[in-house]
Amino acid sequence: xxxxxxxxxxxxxxxxxxxxxxxxxxxxxxxxxxxxxxxxxxxxxxxxxxxxxxxxxxxxxxxxxxxxxxxxxxxxxxxxxxxxxxxxxxxxxxxxxxxxxxxxxxxxxxxxxxxxxxxxxxxxxxxxxxxxxxxxxxxxxxxxxxxxxxxxxxxxxxxxxxxxxxxxxxxxxxxxxxxxxxxxxxxxxxxxxxxx
Length: 196
What we know:
The protein is an alpha/beta fold.
């Protein structure tokens, strides 16, 4: 139970840190559809890992989609402190892998380009941010601490600390002033009371 409460606090703190409009933890818990979608995904993903529960897992994910406007396949693997801001229209495919401390904006697609039963969705390293409307397609890998610009279409892998912009997206090395600070996981564990 302590681990669950720690994870919930971690998610709430991540939302506060990524959204300057957040006024309270209670508001985040009650009104952030991105957070609701992530929590529903965690339940669906656990079910997905148990073979006989794949259909119920899909049902949970579809109910969450209807309530939040965010579709996360229960097979997707998502790390800690993940945040979806203004999540309407986000789609995350079955074999997508998202590292810790990642953030997606509205309208992002982490989609596939193949009909084969294989790894066909993107992998995002730790600390990746994907801008509004961006499409990251196929089994590409986006290195840690990279940023994908709004409306970019990414179809090729990119190294760590890249900035990807355009259609199709081209990558360049992130300039020093564009780096975001690394997250200290201890910061999340020491978060003050849950509903302050």
